[in-house]
Amino acid sequence: MKRTRVTIKDIAKELNVSASTVSRALQDHPALKQQTKDAVRELAEKLNYRPNTMALNFLKQTSTTIAIIVPDITGYFFSAAVTGIQDILVSSGYNIMICISNESYEEESRIVEKLSKVQIAGILVAPSSTTFNFDHIKKIQRNNIPLVIFDRDCEGVDAHKVLVDDYSGAFEAVEYLIKTGCKKIAHITGASDLSTNNHRLQGYLDALKKNNLPILDKYIIYAQGFTHEHGIKPTESLLKSNNVPDAIFAVNDRLAVSAMRTAKKLNFRIPEDISIIGFDDEPHSTYFTPALSTVWQPVYSMGMLSARILLGDIKRKEDENLQLRYEVFKTELVIRGTSKKL
Amino acid sequence: MKRTRVTIKDIAKELNVSASTVSRALQDHPALKQQTKDAVRELAEKLNYRPNTMALNFLKQTSTTIAIIVPDITGYFFSAAVTGIQDILVSSGYNIMICISNESYEEESRIVEKLSKVQIAGILVAPSSTTFNFDHIKKIQRNNIPLVIFDRDCEGVDAHKVLVDDYSGAFEAVEYLIKTGCKKIAHITGASDLSTNNHRLQGYLDALKKNNLPILDKYIIYAQGFTHEHGIKPTESLLKSNNVPDAIFAVNDRLAVSAMRTAKKLNFRIPEDISIIGFDDEPHSTYFTPALSTVWQPVYSMGMLSARILLGDIKRKEDENLQLRYEVFKTELVIRGTSKKL
DNA sequence: AATCTCTATGCAAACGTTTGCACAAAAAGA
DNA sequence: TCTTTTTGTGCAAACGTTTGCATAGAGATT
Fold first, then answer.
1. Same domain, yes or no: B31 and B82
2. Within chain B, where are the H helices?
3. Closest residue of B to A284, CA-based?
4. By CB distance 3.0 to 4.6 Å, which of A119, A149, A171, B195 could disulfide with B153?
């Protein structure tokens, strides 16, 4: 059970050459005799030689590990984004290290603290919903570690950013509801510090304004979280009020799904009595009855682009100066059964 | 923009001591004068000294990276398992490296091949559904890399295994259907090479046998994949046949959900005309109408235990001999609206 | 004063690989 | 035959840290 890996020296000794020669042979160095190369390669193959990555990383003082900090991966959104990131980075020879902040600012800070002690080639971060102080993010930059912020913006931080046009996604959704005759449109949103929530809320507000519909505070409900169970109370409070809305635009699919079930339980017909539109287009959203209308986001592409931008930054030369990228993806409105047809 | 990290030598030079002294001071070596320690620590703090992980890994010839190979993370199941693994490993100071096989044997082999070139402290693997040759897994063992197989079994491979009792989970579900009066129970399953599918199928078959119900080949349908869209055709073929079943037990929730929608479209009442039970208990399964009856698995715990077992193996001494762990988690039947009440 | 015992620190090797420079041997040119 | 060029290979340093061993200097014991 001994862990004796074959090293370059072993090969060198066996072949009566120096370690340098072996190293060069394996790299196909032009100054070497073909014969020597062949001999070395053959023996390396035979002994199942594998270069010691740790020695290499050490020598080159470079790490091939890239960290991804996400709030959660059990939901569709971030797991798809991570998959996109993964596909790009892995094919470029990098390893990804996943760090889950669990939507907690403290955990996120701890992660960043830990990462700063380890050598990391770059970091991709989607900040937690409870993060509104970005000092730790800025610290990453001060340590000169390439950084890309994706999906959720850190306002005031100058970094590469890959975002989604939440504003226009929400605007389109709400305007669609208006066009189909809805006049009393409620919005279930989430933590107000989160850029995505905020932009969707703005889109909602502006769509109402543009169409001369009144903005009612009681139609804007803050959910306490992002998962299904957080959608129940807000919906109940809306549907049991004395001014029942005729549409609900939810900040994500989970809340929309939850709203849908709650509405059904209260004997509302969907979409006749109440229209519902979500955000994200999670794969199972189509399978509800009626199928959920929602706003699709190119998550996977967002992950891929974020990874590509990070790679670009990592590979840029010391002297090249940093050109910050700011990319915003367009969403697409997907009309299914929970909203009326035009 | 230079990347000059402070090293132990820098501190040594500034303090006119040797590097060894600095190293020892930082480790609180007893032979050192308190005064020296304080001076070193203070300067280290001031210069923001961070030990070079790559140098340490190299010196100690140990890696703190653990690889997880999973078929996919966009679904609830594996992302929750990964979260469990992550929570344990991160708190023990390890980094996790996620590798996604995309349910492809080739990709999985490629991943293993790549990992064997990198130094890795251990590997957790849930094999892909198209993997039925386990040579690459055995190769991991031959390289003496600690290995834990989880969720999906690799039969014939002697390794730590953390599995779920799919057989009894399925058995219970089917027996429940029988008890509620179902007599014509169909099963939508998946790739037959996958241990989980196979055990669920066995549970299904044995439950029928035990209750003296006939086993009909046409009631056992193989879906081409695990996602929603793969459930449509199997369900249609069942419900449009001349011997329509009164219950469907699906190998996972996604297929069950899809079966449910298809049944609804064909105007079957659930559960009056047809009962449906899934497997996994994904979070959104409750939110369908009717809410999906299903078999819950302790995914998160499974992830955690797998990680703990792997850690135990990694930390075991060279001379201690390997005690293989074989752990099987119990499932729980969750009865909701898609099956009749007892 | 000579020897012994601590105490605190330094020296140097080791981990595996790459690479600039040196240099021997062979080949080419004079 | 002597010099110059080319070809192929080796030497040694470097990357940052730890650690066994050596040792200088101080204090204690004779």
1. no
2. 8-15, 19-26, 34-47, 53-60, 76-91, 105-117, 135-142, 166-179, 195-210, 229-239, 253-265, 299-315
3. B228
4. B195
